């Protein structure tokens, strides 16, 4: 099982979120690749960097995970679009992990651009 | 700052909703108004064979499975199927060959002001449709089997009818062909027996006569069975004298019984009515068969005919006739089959001169007359055949009209014409008439018969039915048409079906004699002719 720390150490764009799915951390590579600054994203929902059509599904799926603790999208690479600050969509390989913190979960992902 | 507890509550609500929608059997999808997929449930992912992440962001039309009869325009983004209306239902057939896969698709617009969208439901109806298909298949198959069976049965019925008609035709023809020479055998031997001759010759002639009689009875029995089976044998009810019929029948068997030294007795209960209405010929036939068998299968002792009557009403009576003998009896094992055709007697020594038709005819005649027949028998002790037959009781007026006329001697000056194409038959009749001191003019066809009647007065015509040039029925019809109503015509035919008798009557013939002609029958017919002459109105010449 890959940990958040291991993801953080990879030389890939990196983002971390708290138990509510709000962004708490991005790395330099993320900023340079997708144009966002931490200031832009801090406290914002992870859905901000997803296409419009993914947002409802993200919120519903995220909420379900909070109750059930099971997900189809964790711990394996996923090909998804990432929205840049300029609203351009870049095809990327997402690798998302979740870790327990107390009675909740925190999240992190690497987003390797594919094009 | 958002209320954290409220957010958590909302997350729980959303999570439960997501989990619940994921558990439903119907495939669900949520899209924007352009059909871009924004949410799917697990059933939908299974239905399209993609994960949710693979579906999100794509057009719905692009990921749905292909279906039969799909409008190609639908694949264009501006022409999706849901554009027909804001909501609707349609059915898609996904496969072209059985088992069919059928999906019912429903959609509805979700009018949220900021972001209107569409919700789709895909319901799998394959199990229902496949069950319906199986039912339809089974029904079609059943209908096909019924049609096939009906066709086969119709064909079998037609074949059976054709075979039956062909059998009836064959029997009628054979009967005619056999009766014609039999007429000569029986008629001539009948005449010879009346002549003086020595004992040896008389015995030989007697044998010829009896053999002819047996052959004739056999032909008649086969014809009767055939007619009964084909439903052609009809009842001909008329008023008759029961007492006289029983005396006649008994007298006919008295000789046979005395030769075998058997005591033959009639026990007629005093309350038996004398005059009845019914088919006396068939009653006579039943008694003939039963008494004939009794004589044939009894070597010593007695034969009794017991007749009793049960009044059902003032007009109806049940006649119970019992023929019992002290003969060889019938084995218990043979009793259930005794009334079937061609079941002869179990004792080979007693089966000579028996085709096994007599009892079958009796049983069928009883059935035809709404009566019944049964047997009680014990091997070595004898048999008792019981027949119950219903009859109508004749009224006084009916009795008078049918009372037989006294027999009288015949006027030798009678002008008689015999029309028959067969020389032997002509000769038989000529000889029989000669015994009564009567003579006849002989012609060979209907046309010549007509000419003779037109040229000189004729009192009585014996008209053969089947003749060359002009047959007897046509000749009779022609005579009546020409006004020859005072000529008495007696049909003479080797056909014995009652339909022939009716045809003769319809053509205007007065009487009917069946070949082979017997002297007693001829006398009876002449008696009837005499009676007719006495009652006939005298017309001005």
UniProtKB/TrEMBL annotation, chain A:
UniProt-listed InterPro entries: PAS, PAS-like_dom_sf, PAS_fold
Superkingdom of origin organism: Bacteria
Family matches, as SUPFAM superfamilies: PYP-like sensor domain (PAS domain)
UniProt domain PAS: residue ranges: 13-53
One Pfam family cited in the UniProt record for this chain: PAS
NCBIfam families xref list: sensory_box
Record protein name field: PAS domain S-box protein
Provenance organism: Cyanobium gracile UHCC 0139
Automatic annotation (TrEMBL), chain B:
GO terms assigned for molecular function: ATP binding
EC assignment: 2.7.13.3
Coiled coil: 128-159
Domain PAS per the UniProt entry, residue ranges: 13-60
Alphabetical list of PANTHER family matching this protein: HYBRID SIGNAL TRANSDUCTION HISTIDINE KINASE J
Classification via CDD domains: HATPase_EvgS-ArcB-TorS-like (cd16922), HisKA (cd00082), REC_hyHK_CKI1_RcsC-like (cd17546)
Modified residues (4-aspartylphosphate): 464
Pfam families: HATPase_c, HisKA, Response_reg
Species of provenance: Cyanobium gracile UHCC 0139
Reaction(s) this enzyme catalyzes, per UniProt: ATP + protein L-histidine = ADP + protein N-phospho-L-histidine
Protein name (record): histidine kinase
Keyword Kinase set for record: yes
Classification lineage: Bacteria, Bacillati, Cyanobacteriota, Cyanophyceae, Synechococcales
Response regulatory domain mapped to chain residues: 415-530
UniProt cross-references to PROSITE patterns, sorted A to Z: HIS_KIN, PAS, RESPONSE_REGULATORY
Recorded superkingdom: Bacteria
Entry keywords, A to Z: ATP-binding, Coiled coil, Kinase, Nucleotide-binding, Phosphoprotein, Transferase, Two-component regulatory system
Domain Histidine kinase: 173-393
């Amino acid at each position: 099982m890959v940990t958040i720390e291991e993801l953080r150490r990879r030389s890939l764009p990196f983002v971390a979120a708290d138990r509510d799915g709000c962004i708490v951390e991005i790395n330099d590579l993320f900023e340079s690749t997708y144009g966002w600054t931490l200031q832009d994203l801090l406290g914002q929902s992870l859905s901000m960097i997803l296409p419009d059509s993914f947002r409802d599904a993200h919120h519903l799926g995220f909420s379900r995970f909070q109750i059930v603790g099971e997900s189809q999208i964790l711990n394996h690479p996923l090909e998804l679009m990432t929205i840049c600050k300029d609203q351009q969509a870049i095809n990327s390989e997402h690798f998302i992990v979740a870790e327990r913190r107390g009675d909740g979960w925190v999240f992190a992902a690497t987003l390797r651009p594919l094009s | 700052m958002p209320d954290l507890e409220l957010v958590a509550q909302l997350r729980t609500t959303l999570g439960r909703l997501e989990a619940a929608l994921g558990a439903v059997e119907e495939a669900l999808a949520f899209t924007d108004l352009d059909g871009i997929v924004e949410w799917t449930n697990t059933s939908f992912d299974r239905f399209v064979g993609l994960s949710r992440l693979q579906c999100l962001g794509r057009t719905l039309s692009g990921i749905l499975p292909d279906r039969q009869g799909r409008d190609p325009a639908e694949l264009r983004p501006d022409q999706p199927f849901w554009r027909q209306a804001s909501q609707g239902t349609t059915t898609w057939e996904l496969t072209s060959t059985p088992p069919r896969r059928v999906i019912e698709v429903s959609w509805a617009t979700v009018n949220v002001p900021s972001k209107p969208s569409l919700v789709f439901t895909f319901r799998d109806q394959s199990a229902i449709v496949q069950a319906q298909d199986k039912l339809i298949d089974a029904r079609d198959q059943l209908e096909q089997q019924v049609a096939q069976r009906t066709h086969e049965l119709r064909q079998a019925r037609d074949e059976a009818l054709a075979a039956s008609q062909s059998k009836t035709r064959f029997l009628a023809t054979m009967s005619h062909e056999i009766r014609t020479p039999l007429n000569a055998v029986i008629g001539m031997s009948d005449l010879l027996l009346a002549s003086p001759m020595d004992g040896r010759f008389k015995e030989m002639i007697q044998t010829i006569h009896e053999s002819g009689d047996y052959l004739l009875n056999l032909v008649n029995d086969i014809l009767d069975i055939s007619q009964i089976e084909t439903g052609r044998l009809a009842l001909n009810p008329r008023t008759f004298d029961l007492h006289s019929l029983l005396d006649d029948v008994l007298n006919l068997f008295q000789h046979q019984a005395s030769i075998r030294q058997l005591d033959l007795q009639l026990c007629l209960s005093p309350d038996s009515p004398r005059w009845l209405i019914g088919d006396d010929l068939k009653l006579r036939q039943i008694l003939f068969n039963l008494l004939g068998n009794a004589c044939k299968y009894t070597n010593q002792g007695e034969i009794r005919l017991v007749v009793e009557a049960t009044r059902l009403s003032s007009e109806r009576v049940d006649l119970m006739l019992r023929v019992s003998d002290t003969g060889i009896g019938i084995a218990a094992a043979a009793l259930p089959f005794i009334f079937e055709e061609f079941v002869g007697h179990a004792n080979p020594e007693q089966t000579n001169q028996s085709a096994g038709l007599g009892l079958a005819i009796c049983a069928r005649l009883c059935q035809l007359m709404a009566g019944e027949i049964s047997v009680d028998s014990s091997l070595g002790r004898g048999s008792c055949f019981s027949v119950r037959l219903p009859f109508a009781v004749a009224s006084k007026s009916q009795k008078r009209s049918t009372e037989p006329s006294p027999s009288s001697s015949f006027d030798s000056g009678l002008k008689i014409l015999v029309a028959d194409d067969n020389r032997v038959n002509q000769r038989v009749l000529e000889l029989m008439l000669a015994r009564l001191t009567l003579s006849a003019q002989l012609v060979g066809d209907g046309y010549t018969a007509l000419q003779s009647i037109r040229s000189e007065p004729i009192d009585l015509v014996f008209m053969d039915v089947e003749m060359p040039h002009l047959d007897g029925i046509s000749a009779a019809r022609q005579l009546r048409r020409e006004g020859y109503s005072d000529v008495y015509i007696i049909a003479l035919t080797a056909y014995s079906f009652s339909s022939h008798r009716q045809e003769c009557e319809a053509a205007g013939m007065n009487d009917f004699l069946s070949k082979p002609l017997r002297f007693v029958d001829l006398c009876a017919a002449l008696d009837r002719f005499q009676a007719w002459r006495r009652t006939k109105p005298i017309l001005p010449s």
